[in-house]
Amino acid sequence: MKKQNLLFTALAALLISTTLSGCGTKEVQPVAVDEKVDKCAICNMLVKDDKFAVELVQENGKAMKFDDIGCLFAWAAKNGTDQVQQQFVRDYNTDEWVKIEKAAYVFHKDIMTPMAYNVISFKEKADAEAFLKQHGQGSLLTYDDLTKHSWEMNKEMMKEKMEHNHSGSGMSGM
């Protein structure tokens, strides 16, 4: 009888520890963008559900949205990332969410982004390279490169964008 109790206790302990260890490994997923409600945590502009949307999920589960990757880095510089569980960017071609550290990036001063930080993201490095080849200019960056990047808004582009928005004409990309 003692042997059965010991075996039962060991199996119960194994089951409990397996169940508990599985709880901590749940993968964080991005939260859908609501274009009517979600505002960028830095510039307060509405976030579009498009190729420029960026998101971070904090340890407490709160999702914060940004309309430009530069805004995310501005927020991180101001607030730190100790409480950040995961960050996501969108693939420029498909709008698919990608973990920020797994994406490839292209920077060029003429790439039009919502807040003129001029960086776009791609799920696959080959897609970023194809974009560079097609446009003949720009730099290929990794997430590590972004952490060292000089996040300066292209003020000339923003000024031009504001003038065009007030005159009613849209702006095209690169």
What is the ordering of alpha helices and beta strands?
A: HEEHEEEEHEHH
Give the rounded overall mean pLDDT: 85
Helical percentage: 25-40%
As for the number of domains, it is 1
Global morphology: globular
Count of strand segments: 7
Report the uncertain regions: 3-23, 168-172
**Rg (CA only):** 22 Å
Q: How far apart are the termini?
A: 77 Å
Strand order of the largest sheet: 2-1-3-4
- Determine the structural class based on helices, strands and strand pairing: alpha+beta
Query: Describe the biggest sheet?
Result: 4 strands, antiparallel
Range of strand content:
15-25%
Please work out how many helical segments DSSP would assign: 5
Assembly state: single chain
Give an account of the 3D structure.
The protein is α+β, with helices and mostly antiparallel strands. It has one domain (40-167). The protein has five helices and seven strands, in the order αββαββββαβαα. The strands form two sheets. It has a four-stranded antiparallel sheet with strand order 2-1-3-4. A hairpin with a 4-residue loop joins strand 1 and strand 2 (63-66). The radius of gyration is 22 Å and the shape is globular. The model is unreliable at 3-23 and 168-172 (pLDDT under 50). Residues 1-21 form the signal peptide.
